[in-house]
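Good day; I would like, with your permission, to put a structural problem before you. The record follows directly beneath this note:
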Amino acid sequence: MVGVFMDQTKEEIEHVLQKVPLDAIQLHGLETPEFCARLGRPVWKVFSVGQGWDPAIVRAYSAVAVHLYDTASSTGKSGGTGKTFDWSLLPSRSSLPWYLAGGLSLENIPNAITLHRPDGLDLNSGVESAPGIKDPAKLEAVMDIISVWRTQAVVVGLPGRPEEGWSVGGEMWPCWKVAATRESPETEIRGLLDLLEIHEHLVLDLSARKGDAQQMGIEVMHWQMIAREKGRHLKFKLSEEMVEAMVRSSLGGLLELID
């Protein structure tokens, strides 16, 4: 059980704790790190994310249990907007467990969990049939998605990280930056299939991958065939050096004649 507070005094929170055995305290206001440390319960500190916010403030809250990122309201505070924020504004790294909030729903949770890998989701209006009324069907559908995520079955085979989406034909496609390190081909294909299970359109950034250009060309064609068999759309981002090497490899003897 988590109690949600915003800018209340320590005495007010302790009064609630005397009546309700809360497991954690979620703080949405301007509470300082020192205030969080005096509460005697695990604290989930919420940060209001919007244009102009400073991610550096998060470092001061290294002693809390969880960092929770929510959409900033028009007043600069978080919570209750029912809207998402620009996820590219999230801190690039977190030394603590972190949760994502703000307008999460069936439509955007797959992107949230596969591209950003939060440790938890804070759901509210996106799983309601009316304000304050949870929708059982929406909750069940969301839990079906999360069950896959919680068993670590999503993108375990294709090492990498999310990257800012790419504009393809005027539409934003999610992008997965594939790591330079490689797993076995079978393991990476399973990871690719996990991504394609969630995303109809996807950009794979292979710019960090080095090695034999001919082998890279075969790999890219194989992955493209897998995507097409699944009715999915896949595009690739490659380094300029790799593109040049692949062109030379594919044209082979003809380029020798031209040279």
DSSP finds eight helices and twelve strands in the chain. The longest helix spans residues 213-229.
